[in-house]
User: Fold this.
Amino acid sequence: MRTIEESRAEYLDCENNCKHDKDCVFMLSNCPKQGSIVSIYHNYLNDIIKDIPLDRLEQICEAERDGRCVVLPCKVGDFLYHIYPVQGVIESRIRRIQKNINGVFIVDCKGAWMESKIGKTIFLTKAEAEQKLKETEGEDD
Assistant:
């Protein structure tokens, strides 16, 4: 089974390497490869919306148009990784994600962290946290 990334790459390859009129991606009737472009685009969309009911897709699209759609960086139950000079990388489980007028906050047992802190002071993978710890240790030398 293809991933969404593979499907998207195939579609973009067709779009970016088109040797015909660039409008053919949007005005398919102008493209000599019409059948294959339609098929590639159809496969791409199918891979994206696979297993999502149509009524749910409609809700998501309406929320996006209304400015109510928020894509979270993680989910409750995932782990956050904190770096400390002495203890090193410490793992904690995400307990809650909340949004208010100030932004999106990720809450674990150590506190509430603004989403903008991901990659700076908190990390979603242990590898990223360890890399940042190495960089900060190098700065101290």
About this structure: The chain is about 40% helix and 20% strand. The helical segments are 4-16, 34-49, 54-66, 126-140.
